[in-house]
Amino acid sequence: KMCCNLKRRFLLLYATQKGQAKAIAEEIQQQAGAHGLEADMYCISEMDKYNLEAEKDPVVIVISTTGTGDPPDTARKFIKKIQDKTLPPDHFAHLQYGLLGLGDSEYTFFCNGGKTVDRRLQELGAQHFYDTGLADDCVGLELVVDPWIDGLWLALKEAFLLQEEKKGMSSNVDAVSDSPFAAPCVREPDLTSKVQHLKLEDEGARSSDVLSQKLVDINLVTSAQDLEPSLVRSVPPVSQSALNIPALPAEYLEVQFQDTHGENPSLSSLTSEGTAFEVPVTKAVQLTREDAIKTALLLELDIADTTFDYQPGDAFCVICPNNVNEVEELLRILGLPGKGEHFVCVKVKQGTKKKGATLPQHIPERSTLKFLLTWCLEIRTIPKKAFLRALVECTGDAREKRRLQELCSRQGASDYTRFIREPNVCLLDLLHAFPSCKPSLNLLIEHLPKLQPRSYSASSSNLFQPGKLCFVFNIVEFPACPTRPVSWKGVCTGWLAELVAPLLQTNKNAVDARGGSLSTEKIFIFARPSNTFHLPADPSIPFIMVGPGTGISPFIGFLQHRQKLREEHTDWKFGETWLFFGCRHQDRDYLDELKCFLENGTLTHLKVCFSRDLPAAEVAPPKYVQDVVRLYAKEVARVLMKERGYFYVCGDKKHMADGVSDAVVDILSMEMGVDKLEAMKILAMLREAKRYLQDVWS
Fold first, then answer.
1. Do 425 and 553 fall into the same domain?
2. Is the pLDDT of residue 638 over 90?
3. Which burial class, exposed, middle or buried, applies to 128 when counting CB atoms under 10 A from its CB (0-12, 13-18, 19+)?
4. E-assigned strands of 475-554?
5. What is the CATH number of the domain that holds 562?
6. FAD-binding FR-type domain spans which residues (predicted)?
7. Which residues in 449-604 belong to E strands, given as ranges?
8. What pLDDT, on a 0 to 100 scale, did the predictor assign at position 42?
9. Are strands 522-528 and 577-583 parallel, antiparallel or unpaired?
10. How does pLDDT run across 235-267, given as a tens digit for each residue?
């Protein structure tokens, strides 16, 4: 019989790329104690610390998805192991598991990391003890994550109960068969009544989370009926509700200030994803006119003195810092304006209640405070509810405290989405909005995630320009809003633009020139090779490229590579090449380089559109690339189906790539005489065969 006072163990595995899945797993581990359970938590890559083949207890898996549908890097070894074709179909027949997948429906292969593991575990005989949850970062992970975690505890207790029943039944059978006399049968309480009891018990555990101050002092609720809610103000019913708020996360780090002597860690030590190279920026060109809506820059890096290698279509990462003014402002609010150059030592707090607490990988043991806030922590991240819960304890003003409680509560979920998630509110915004909130430094280090390197597509060919690596990007702009009176530039694109401003000055009067003086500015990069977004291995295979705006970037590399191959191998047969390019204005955003590829025969067909130019003709030309693709339906179908060509799409996911795939589905349906469903299956097969390839972002 299950002893209710004994903490039952379950195995908790997480696979994370940027820390989301780990944070959710930690939340599950933390809540487990309140439900009389103990989570034995590991990263899924730590296969020496757990053994699914011999696991008797229930298993909970939290797994994210990266890229356009890949499992996180930490799950690759695990997935390779379970994908072994020699494993029998009952390999995991003993395993009971529940899985929570994280993804973004902006991308085609939504939650594919979780779905891949789920499907394979099922094929190997594992059983669900709880339904799979698929959380969507596009609308807010918490919309699925919170209720999934709420329901997990009852499902786990039912799983333990069934386990006990099975044990009891087998031990009873053993006892009867071993004994010469049959013992009188003592009936256990009916299983359903036990489950009912568990439900009541679980409700009790949940209600213990309800804020002890059932209703806030009525004086604090001003005549809110007349007011609109905002980040700092709530209205009924939220303002008058008793609140279910998350448990307070245990603090687990301590920060010791030291003197100003010493050296900061090398920036190359900030990544564990590959060798980082420090390379000079040798050229910077503004590709768009001053009056263009978006500013596009092309940067050239000198990689000649490194072992950095890439193919056209590969991506690479840039290690970038937070904005210097935002770091200074954060230091000021924290009351540490003169301490930036002081070294700090970060250690795990002795006697912390956080189980298995370790120093996060991205936090150096010793560095200056400014280095830590500049290079290690994503200070612009949207604060999670657990962070808000911790900030409550650092807030002096009663009204501000109550509002932060509301924003992290179950009752305030829609306020959290509306006033924090959707407007991309960050820590600095919160500290400005709630001036009595004075968090400690250790709290920020515990709750702010790693400052992620930013990924860019190579826009060059090593064959065409040996020792050079080029890339193109728009300077990202975030307009001012009610919670932020000043506009922002993207963390990395804003920094790069500032870094190369002197180089751009030299080109000011020659936008078309590819010139520019040598620069002493250097940046750290590391490779992130693509497994699939490459030219066909056989040069005689035709291909189609669709890349509006900076989506053109990898295709410049493709065409440079093809041009060089044509020069070097005059006897080879080369397939035709199509490029569909779009930009806002022909005179401000158009790349003349594309005409050169057309004139020298590297590019067979160039089709362009300009979405913001006023039509001169009576019949308006197509505005967007997906519309132009439709005009060439017969040719697209021929290249894809008759000639088994490739189709590449690069650029914005939501507003372009989805429109292009819809256009291709319509073309296949029309040209092959099949219904839309059949055409969608054909497109899925092309994706599967790696002949319809996307490099997209949201």
1. no
2. yes
3. middle
4. 477-478, 488-489, 522-528, 543-546
5. 3.40.50.80
6. 274-536
7. 454-457, 468-474, 477-478, 488-489, 522-528, 543-546, 577-583
8. 95
9. unpaired
10. 999 999 999 998 898 999 999 999 989 999 999
514 vs 54, which has greater pLDDT?
54
Residue 162: pLDDT band by 50, 70, 90 thresholds?
confident
pLDDT digits 0-9 by tens, 98-140: 999 999 887 778 899 999 999 999 999 999 999 999 999 888 8
What domain range includes position 604? Answer: 543-696
Domain end point (choices 415, 447, 479)? 447
Which pLDDT belongs to residue 464? 96
**How many of the other CB atoms lie within 10 Å of CB of 597?**
22
Cis check for the bond before 237: say yes or no (omega within 30 of 0). Answer: yes
Do 589 and 288 meet the contact criterion of CB atoms below 8 Å apart?
yes
> What is the per-residue pLDDT for 293?
80
CATH of the domain at 414: 1.20.990.10
Helices (H), 98-209: 112-123, 142-178, 191-207
Q: Whose CA is closest to 425, among 472, 484, 466?
A: 484
pLDDT tens sequence across 554-604: 999 999 999 999 999 999 999 999 999 987 655 544 467 788 999 999 999
How many Å apart are CA 522 and CA 412, to the nearest integer? Answer: 46
Domain count along the chain: 3
Are residues 29 and 138 both part of a single domain? Answer: yes
Q: Which amino acid is at 304?
A: A
Q: Please state which of the ranges 15-29, 181-195, 288-302, 474-488 shows the lowest mean pLDDT.
A: 181-195
What's the chain's length in residues? 698
Alpha-carbon distance 243 to 246, whole Å? 10
Radius of gyration in angstroms for the set of CA atoms belonging to the chain, rounded to a whole number = 29
> Contact, 1 vs 168, CB < 8 A?
yes
Q: Are 283 and 537 in contact (CB under 8 A)?
A: no
Q: Which residue has the tokens 């041009």?
A: 563
Q: Which residues contact 361 (CB under 8 A, 6 or more apart)?
A: 272, 450
DSSP string, 197-219: HHHHHHHHHHHTTB-SSSS--GG
